[in-house]
Amino acid sequence: MTITDDPSTTGTSVIGTRMLRKEDPALLTGEAVFTNDMKVPGALHMAVLRSPYAHARIVSIDTGEAASMAGVHSVFTGEQVMDLWAAPMPCAWPVTDDMLNPPHYPLAVGKAVYVGDGVACVLAETDAIARDALEAIIVEYEPLEAVIDLEEALSDRVVIHEELGTNASYTWPLVIEENEGDCERAMQESPHVVKERYVQQRLIPMAMEPRAVVAMPEPFGGNMTLYSATQVPHILKVMTALTLGIPEQQMRVVCPAVGGGFGSKLNVYAEELLCVALARKLGKPVRWNEERSENAQATCHGRAQIQEIELAADADGKLTGLRVRLIGDMGGYLQLVAPGVPLLGAFLYGGVYHLPKAFDFSCTSVFTNMTPTDAYRGAGRPEATYAIEHAMDALARKMGIDPLEIRRRNFIPTESYPYEAYTGLVYDSGDHDKAARVAEGLLDYAGLRARQAEQNTPDATKRLGIGVSTYFEMCGLAPSRVLASLNYSAGGWESATVRVLPTSKIQVVTGTAPHGQGHETSWSMIAADKFGIDPADIEVLHSDTAIAPLGLDTYGSRSLPVGGVAIGMACDKVIDKARQIAAHQMEANPDDLEFTGGVFRIAGQPDKEMPLAAVAFEAFTAHDLPDGVEPNLEAQVTYDPPNFSWPFGTHMCAVEIDVETGEVEVLQYVAVDDCGVQVNPLIVEGQVHGGVIQGLAQALWEEARYDSDGNLQSSTLAEYLVPAASDVPSITTGVSVTPSPTNPLGVKGVGEAGTIGAAPCVMNAVVDALSGLGVTDIQMPASPLKVWQAIQEAQQ
Ligand code: MCN
User: Fold this and answer.
1) What would the pLDDT profile of 699-745 be if each residue is shown by its tens digit?
2) CB of 690 closer than 6 angstroms to any ligand 1 atom
3) E strands along 204-282, which residues?
4) What is the value of pTM for the model shown?
5) Among 139, 313, 522, 536, which is 20 to 30 Å from 790 by CA?
């Protein structure tokens, strides 16, 4: 259900409409081709032997029996493929100059550092034969003590990568130089200080489609096409070329349909590199597909942080200082952008609040004997939001102020935008009171508080809890210069090419790489709006580096605020060129032409007109173009945004907790996510629904659990509790539209917003329900057992 208090989501005709997604018929009828659906005659199937130990020396590997099995083509150990790598696997975010990064190769050599670390691979005629042959490989391991606990890892009692001498990879502080000391002073002098410790449990992204790879060498000439279920074809192409020493122009990466990623497919994975390297070596196609349990172990995990947050406030509850100490769990190795994940959060600990520059942040990231972590929907920003929002509730409880009221007292006032935040970054626009008012109305906050006062008697068996969370998100990644200042190795621009074909149909070529976000629909809508034509007449080409050679892909809710904006700009460029051609044909001054509904007209002479189709054909035949104007209607734009995109919002929910069983039921959920102008409100709602459910799942159900030996105990969907539709409440989305002034479309990203708001909202409601019983906090996920135990402990 959507209720809007603001019908002005758009001023134009196509943008803002709830167009059904173009991509859905192929997905719903099974016509969409995923990587693993591809028929590749003669391909060798790869299977990877994974370490059963979290930390072990590899003493010897005997591949003889496996290699001799019928249908097996070849078997390789890590050592046997070392000569295929020009460089170790990439980490593109060396956050500090002295960050420690052990060499990481697609197959482990000498030592395995997590359960699932690849140690050998088999190539065979079928997937089943390859997997059977894995069992015939004999590996002698010398098991070592596994390091699972983050704080224990920091003690260096057991060092995982001995050559580094420590498990700490880097420490990254963020203190504003001229304000050094202000935070400590605020902690000493403020009348109210809360100090909290939160554990962001490890999560497994669990995209519906596990990873899959096909590497196809051309018979001669050395060209290679890598098909992969990835969300970053362009990054993958560059990194594969560099890691394998392949001339970049010989590498092409294609993503067929991709069934979700949630950040986990923003990586350069061992299996992609192995398939390409072995296909190249053998001159045959090599393919690999991941099984579900393998996905749980071998695809990057997310979150996995311990946060200590201290929040200081004056007598009115206004924030005076904030200190954060963070430990980030990198797992066994540093993956592509993993070191940067805690940094992204550093800029959001202040939430939507006016925080003086009394801020002190420091994060230390450590290696452990678990699956490597990396970006997962929100990447650092949900964790930061959780910490500030959960601590705000702790502060409100301590001071006896209503949680919504304490937030209101601290909101950055709307009139202060653009607003320079405590970190020096500038937030583009915001109206926090409005988002809160819409949410408050939809939830009936006051009514629920009254009901709560009646219901939560000391002997009540079902207790009502109300949760509030607000958030700012830094997305639309982003200005290349700012990324440079954070030591990120790439830029943040995006590319778009728009061409009008001779018959006036339009092609949009984008560097974004959708994997569930509906880009074909949204990008068609942006172009349709510009050209005044039917979105059905627009074709969107993407996810193939031969067709869309320039791009930086899809992550960080960047595709619309960077890629979509680039498309709008490229359309404008094409229209400018068309205007010149039309003016020449109509013997008019280009400045006198109006362009509406796909037709050029001379201002004041409505009978003189030239439709875009006629201009496109003139541009194609090139028989009579103005001097200096090139044939064809085509333009390319590479857009590097001047700022991040800063969506914000308020989420509220009501939960009921059964005191006897500890079960939490979410009764009502309201999400008001302000992402500026909405290109397609239907897609926005879908993004928010999916995001909220992922946040809710972190709060209540999901956790990658390891035993003390480093064995993943939740590697199947029976143990890792991804919610089904029947587990989640109906979500009410309310609308608030505060356009971004930094881009011409006025848009902000929305792909991660729901996830960011949801976990603190639900956990605030859980603690709110139980605080009357003396419960002060529960770590996520708030399982029935943990909730029940917290109630028992509080009552002792
Ligand atoms: N949109 C809009 N109006 C806005 C904002 C967004 O209409 N003001 C639309 C866009 O046009 C686009 C979609 O919403 O169709 C998402 O846009 P955007 O916020 O730019 O995010 P991205 O397309 O860059 O997607 C990345 C983001 C991230 S980081 C994760 S993680 C994530 C997510 O999107 N993973 C997803 N959403 C997902 N959705 C699906 N189905 N599967 C995933 O793996």
Assistant:
1) 999 999 999 999 999 999 999 999 999 999 999 999 999 999 999 99
2) yes
3) 212-217, 224-228, 251-254
4) 0.97
5) 313
